[in-house]
Amino acid sequence: MATKKNNQPNSNKDINYYKKKFWRVFAYTLLGILAFFLFASWGLFGSMPSFEDLENPDSNLATEIISSDGVVLGKYFKTNRSQLKYSDLPKSLVEALVATEDARFYEHSGIDGRGTLRAVFSLGTNGGASTLTQQLAKQLFHGEGSKFLPFRIVQKIKEWIIAIRLERQYTKNEILAMYCNVYDFGNYSVGVSSAAQTYFSKDPKDLTMDESAILVGMFKNSGLYNPVRNPEGVKNRRNVVLGQMEKAKMITTAEKLRLQALPITLKFKLESHREGTATYFREYLRDYMKKWVAENKKPDGSDYDIYKDGLKIYTTIDSRMQSYAEEAVSEHMKNLQQQFFIEQKTNKNAPFVNITQAETERIMMQAMKNSTRWAIMKDMDKSEDDIIASFKVKTQMRIFTWKGERDTIMTPLDSIRYYKHFLQSGLMAMEPQTGSIKAWVGGINYKYFQYDHVGQGARQVGSTFKPFVYATAIEQLNMSPCDSILDGPFMIHKGRHHVTEDWEPRNSDNKYRGMVTLKQGLANSINTVSAKLIDRTGPEAVVELTQKLGVKTEIPVQPSIALGAVDITVEDMVAAYSTFANQGVYVKPQFLSRIENKSGEVIYEPIPESHDVLNKDIAFAVIKLLEGVTETGSGARLRTEGGGSGDNRWTGYPYMFRNPIAGKTGTTQNQSDGWFMGMVPNLVTGVWVGCEDRSARFKSLTYGQGATAALPVWAYFMKLCYKDEALQISKSEFERPANLSIKVDCYSRPAVVKDTTQTEQNTDEFQL
Questions:
Q1: Distance (Å, rounded) from C-alpha 519 to C-alpha 502?
Q2: Can you tell me the distance from the alpha carbon of 277 to that of 299, in angstroms, rounded to the nearest whole number?
Q3: 189 pairs with which residues across the strands?
Q4: Transmembrane stretches, by residue range (predicted)?
Q5: How many CA atoms within 13 Å lie on the side-chain side of 758?
Q6: What mean pLDDT comes out for the span 169-195?
Q7: pTM
Q8: What are the pLDDT digits (tens) for 223-275?
Q9: Of 641, 663, 659, nearest in space to 711 by CA
Q10: Residue 120 pLDDT > 80, yes or no?
Q11: Radius of gyration in angstroms for the set of CA atoms belonging to the chain, rounded to a whole number
């Protein structure tokens, strides 16, 4: 007993000793943890985001190109990421995300204590502990991080600190929206907005519940659960998400079973700079923006980056009209191309017509030197002989056809000749009163043919230049559309108007009609009439007026310009013709409405440019001249119901327009270029058709003239526009000026309905 009594004090001493030691260790541990957190927040274990970083995280946003009717036409990006507000997210996606990734999201303040303890005690086998806010912190500021455990612990602590800061800085809804905006869903799509477009070709608000569940399932691992590569795995993961929604009582058991039974249905479309809507316009705009960012700086003086600053570029393009224009070009060009291939079957030097072997070799050599193959091999220090030899070796390649891409084997040299066969087209439509460009089609397929035939390519305009001559004559000589002029042999002798030798223009049919009115002269595109008019006004006056009409190319001061021996872009031609429709006031074409930064602040708004060119009476007189072209002249097939030579290539014929149309066809020498300029009161559209090389062409007027090559594109486009009543394209008369001083209503014999087999009398024969 004495022994027990003697041991009791020692036992109490031992217990007190261990208690003190425990609390000392506990205090030191707690202080160590607090210090660790403090040091981490100070950035001693690596940089931490500042208040400014949290306020404006580097979200690397794609710049969006937006149409006048609110449709995203395309994007500029290195990372395809688009910004969404919480209100843009579908309810089903938000519910699925919270149910699957962070069931207590609305209860915690950035860190889920219960989930963290569960993860610690189960060593991660019973689910992770990362909240949505922590995952957002990792996405924004750290990425995946290190696999080394000590570093991983440091990163996890930093995530906790950032998560708490984010919760203080933003609302729960804002955090959800940010998380949905930064996640990489693969296939170059970052964020729910891009993913919805890529996988389902939809805006996020239009996603169904099972589509939302698919995207939420991808948050776990977008590489593994990619619906394009692993549809079975995606279906299983989607069904897990739907199960979580049922568990959270967001959907019923019956709804879950119905949705789980649905197949994985995609409408996959990879967003690309070279595909989609308005590709040529988007590239033209990209070049414009390169100059814009050099001249317009951020408030801090730094440069804007169109690939990551999330700008919103609001354009004047109407997505519906753009779609109709692309359809019109596609449908007619594939139809006309068939005829071109038929004609070239008997041509040993196809597609080139009437050129020498030396000229052919020059064209082919230039094409080789412009190719990517040549540039790559040149960079590899290959000799010119070796490079040329490589163009003669057969190789496997994918080529463009109007029936879709096709894999084949041919030499690169043969592929160059093959692509030289294709007819190209350029179309631009514009509101004459505002200068707003509504549609822009620079070619037949941007992926294979990058050259823009609207803003980049100036081509010879043929008889579409003649209205500028007539307008000059009406202004300078006080003539009217009803005045008469003799269609007969005519010559401008050497020395007059700078001609270096006698110039005698001829009509395409080598016939003369005697006395005709100016209206008849333009309607039938009579060359001698245009030549006589420019002889009276002088070419200087015509050049001056044409430049006032906005034509930027250099025009030779020669009488031959009266027949269209001038290279002008489609863009400039549309702007010039729009001046007539806008009562003589030129308005510079406008493709931008405004530019906003990612916060929605307007950072640029263009100022419209305009100036007076002609008085209202003269402009209206030219309109009446151009109406004659579609009433009785080379554009009359817009109204006829009969047929004609080659009418199977007049895509969409018969057109049977009944409303007033002012227009002009144009065909250059040897049918290298076909044009049609068409106007109604609130829309002016120009169309050009031809091959890349002027020596590749139709052999005859039947298919090579503007009335066959270009007019059907305009007609097809306008029929689609008129069918869409929401566009409100006018069918009214052009506005007649009050107290009109020029006689425009000429007497004519009743029109005789006839077929339109007549070829266009505007093939230009001239000497330069």
A1: 28
A2: 33
A3: 80
A4: 25-45
A5: 19
A6: 85
A7: 0.79
A8: 889 898 899 999 999 999 999 999 999 999 999 999 999 999 988 887 666 67
A9: 663
A10: no
A11: 35
pLDDT of residue 655: 96
Alpha-carbon distance of 222 to 209, in angstroms, equals 19
Find the Cα–Cα–Cα–Cα dihedral 141, 143, 144, 148, rounded to 10°. Answer: -50
Give the pairing type, strands 80-81 and 189-190: parallel
Query: What does the CA dihedral 756, 759, 760, 764 come to, rounded to 10 degrees?
Result: 180
Question: At CA 687, angle to CA 685 and CA 690, rounded to 5?
Answer: 175
Nearest residue to 215 via CA among 276, 266, 272: 266
Sheet with 674-680, side-by-side order of all strands: 437-441, 423-430, 683-691, 674-680, 662-667
pLDDT at residue 106, as a whole number: 84
Taking alpha carbons only, the member of 435, 413, 728, 361 closest to residue 610 is 435
Query: Helices 2-42 and 149-169 meet at what angle, rounded to 10?
Result: 70
Please name the amino acid found at residue 378.
Answer: K
pLDDT, residue 1, reads 47
Contact 524, 487 (CB under 8 A): no
Q: What is the pLDDT of residues 415-464, one digit of tens each?
A: 999 999 999 999 999 999 999 999 999 999 999 999 999 988 899 999 99
Task: State the Cα–Cα distance between residues 410 and 396, nearest whole angstrom.
Answer: 7
Contact between 69 and 165 (Cβ < 8 Å): no
Length of the chain: 768
pLDDT band of residue 124 (cuts 50, 70, 90) is very low
User: Cα–chain-centroid distance for residue 691?
Assistant: 22
Residue 661: closest CA among 610, 707, 623: 623
Question: Mean pLDDT, to the nearest integer, of 15-42?
Answer: 64
What's the rounded Cα separation, in Å, for the pair 35 and 584? 78
Check pLDDT > 80 for residue 19: no
Q: What pLDDT sits at residue 316? A: 98
For residues 260 and 240, give the distance between their C-alpha atoms in angstroms, rounded to a whole number.
9
Positive or negative: CA dihedral 618, 623, 625, 626: positive
- Exposure on the CB side of residue 6, measured as CA atoms within 13 A: 3
On whether the CB atoms of residues 266 and 200 are closer than 8 A, the answer is yes
CA dihedral 151, 153, 155, 160 (to 10 degrees): -170
Pairwise CA distance, residues 269 & 357, whole Å = 45
Secondary-structure percent of the chain, ordered helix, strand, coil, rounded to 5: 45, 15, 40
- The tokens for 476 are 């300078």
Joined tokens for residue 639: 């109204």
Residue written as token pair 């020596």:
695
The most distant pair of C-alpha atoms in the chain lies apart, rounded to whole Å, by 151
Q: Give CA angle at 188 (269, 128), nearest 5°.
A: 115
Q: SS in 3 state form for 582-634?
A: CCCEEECCECEEEEECCCCCEEECCCCCEEECCCHHHHHHHHHHHHHHHHCCC
Tens of pLDDT, residues 471-515: 999 999 999 999 999 999 999 999 999 899 999 999 888 899 999
* 365-409 pLDDT tens trace: 999 999 989 999 998 999 999 999 999 999 999 999 999 999 999
Q: Average per-residue pLDDT in the chain?
A: 87
